[in-house]
Every structure is written in C-alpha cells, then in structure tokens.
Amino acid sequence: DEVETIAGTGNSLYSGKVSIDAQRFGTTFRLTDTTRGRGTVCDMAHQEDENGSCKLFTDADNTWGTGTNDDPASAAVDAAYGAATTYDYFKTVHGRRGINNNGRGVPSRVHFGDEYVNAFWDKGRMTYGDGRGNAHPLVQLDIAGHEMSHGITEKSVSGDLTYTGESGGLNEATSDIFGNMVEFYAANPADPGDYLIGEKIDIFGNGTPLRYMFDPALDGRSHSCWSAETPNVDPHLSSGVGNHFYFNLAEGTGKTAFGTSPICGKAGAVTGIGRAKAEKIWYRALDVYFISNTSYVSAENPGNTARAYTLQAAADLYGSCGAEYKAVQLAWTAVNVAG
Ligand code: ASN
Ligand code: ZN
Ligand code: CA
Which residue ranges does the record assign to the Peptidase M4 C-terminal domain (predicted)? Predict the structure, then answer.
C-alpha cells in the first residue's frame, strides 16, 4: 500500500479549523507528520501507565475532530497542530530542525489519565491531560509550545537546565517565552498571540490564565521582581523574573498593547526592541551560553547568569554598542537583576 503525506483538515478545540499533515496508508489516514520527522499523536484513552499502550489516531476521510470534546480526535488536532507549529517556529526563526536538530519529530500523547489537570514533557514526548470541571484539555498552542520547549532546553543545555532553584525558573521561563512566541508565530485569529499562558484553558475556573508574563505577580504567587526569596520558590513562580525580563525586552515597560509591565524598585523605563530580536537573543543565550546551573543572580560566579549570557548573545547578534545591548541591561535592571 502506498504511503504518502496528505494535508488533512482538523477541527481543533482552541485554534479553529487548521491544516494538519497526515499520512495515508492504504485507505486509512494516520496522525503521523512525515513532513516534520514523523511526529505522531496517540490516544491514552484516560490511562496513565508509563508503558501502557497509546493508540495512534487514525481516520477514514482525513477530516479530524469536530472542534468539541465529544470527539477524542479534537484534542489530537490541537496536539498535532501544536507540535507542527512549534517545529516550524524553531526551524524558521532559529534554524533548528526539531528538538534534536536532526529533523526528527516527537510523539504527543493526549487524553492522559482521569481528569488530569496538567501537561508535561518527559522521555522525549509531550503528554496532555483533559482537565477537570471548568479546566479544559491542556492542549492550547502556547502549552504545546511550552512543553516542546522543555525538550529544546534539555537538548540545548548540556545536562539540562537543572529544575530547581533559579536555573529551574530559567527553564520554566524559557518554555513560557517560546510557548507564546509560537502563539505569535502562528498568527491564528482563533488564538492570537499574547503574553498569557493557557488563557483558553480556564484552569482556575474563574477565567484567569495560568500565568502572566508582563506582570507575573498578577497570579498572586509568581515573582515579577527578583528578590532573595526567588531561589527558594517553585520554578513555575521564579520563572516570573525571566518572563518579566523578556516582556520588558520585547515590548517595554509601562502600558503596552499586551498589558502593563511594572518597573521594579527605582529602575528606569525600558523601550522594547520587538519580539523578532528578543526571541533571537533568548534562544542564543540558551543554546550557546546557558549551563546547567545558570541563575538570575550569582555572588560566586557573576559570569554564570542569564543577565551576562543574554548580554553576550545581544553583543554577538547586534553589537555591544547598540540599542539592543542597552535594552537587555535595562530590562534586567527593571526586574531587579542589576549588573
Ligand atoms: N506543566 C508543567 C510544566 O511543564 C508540568 C510540570 O510541572 N513539570 O512545567
Ligand atoms: Zn514547564
Ligand atoms: Ca498565550
């Protein structure tokens, strides 16, 4: 039987009608993306076991899902679209061909567990739960980009960015940053780019997003400004410092189209340099300079900080006398990470 890639139609939960690349095998279509290194989407059917079976989604007419949870394939469409869009983002914007930079795709598992309110990256694959109550399935594009970016971080930083303390915060911030840069890259009117994480999931049941990058403390827990407590909190909270820095660098402080970014302490205002430059600076810092224990602030080794490495990346890309380098300095200072 002939096998070929055919663009199918997907009716997603969050991104409207999207094109997804499926594979035809005889008279059946499979959710295997042969144009991006054979990434797959499979159905955990509410099981959680580590090595239990996950059944590859198949379809008879290459029109996948209905856009509602009545059809288990709808969440699979979001996962396929998320993996494909994230793959395309890193290839187009950063010249990286997949997580391992070898052109290989990765598997996505959907419908993991029973009312599981999370998504995660482990063992070289993405896994998504269905949520519970008001919390909808955790397959929104920025979440897919977040989880896949954990794989990018794992393969870019030798030994991974350690998932505790401030390096854990940088690991989480990297995933939030690229998750939303993927959302902007997609430019999908059904899910426009923003600096909120999981804004369509309603994870708290009150309409608020999981996280806010322009002022992370709006969630009542995350750190918008670095403090001596930052190394002691969960990576999903210390990520606030990196997320807020990134927002300042890309969009500036004060009132913006995406939210109001407060300035920490007595720092000066920042004028953003735009996402196209900010994302290249963060990616280069991650890929070329970050090591496993890089932190926001380090008394012992001031050279091994995100501030030092993003400045180095900015100097490499745009020179050390330009507005970009200056903006990196100001954007860190505005989150209370001084030079
Ligand atoms: N969704 C979470 C994350 O990707 C899962 C976790 O806490 N590891 O960060
Ligand atoms: Zn994460
Ligand atoms: Ca978002």
Answer: 160-337
Residue 295 DSSP symbol:
B
One-character DSSP codes across 46-79: T---TTS--EEPEESSSEE--SSTTSTHHHHHHH
Domains, the chain, ordered by start: 3-139 (3.10.170.10), 165-333 (1.10.390.10)
Burial of residue 169 (CB within 10 Å: 0-12, 13-18, 19+) is buried
Q: Is the CB of 110 under 6 A from ligand 1?
A: no
For ligand 1, whether the C-beta of 119 sits within 6 Å is yes
DSSP 126-158: EEEE---TT---S--HHHHHHHHHHHHHHHHST
Catalytic residue check, 251 = no
Pairing, β 254-256 against β 259-261: antiparallel
- Determine if the pTM surpasses 0.90: yes
Compute, in angstroms, the gap from residue 303 CA to the centroid of ligand 1.
Answer: 28
d(CA 64, CA 264): 47
Q: What are the tokens at 74?
A: 């709808």
Provide the residue type at 11 as one letter: N
Residue 194 neighbours by CB distance under 10 Å: 18
Q: Which atom of ligand 1 lies closest to the CA of 163?
A: 8
How do residues 79-89 score in pLDDT, each as one tens digit? 999 999 999 99
Could you tell me if the CB of 154 is within 6 A of ligand 1? Answer: no
The question of ipTM being above 0.90 is answered as: yes
Q: Is 147 a catalytic residue?
A: yes
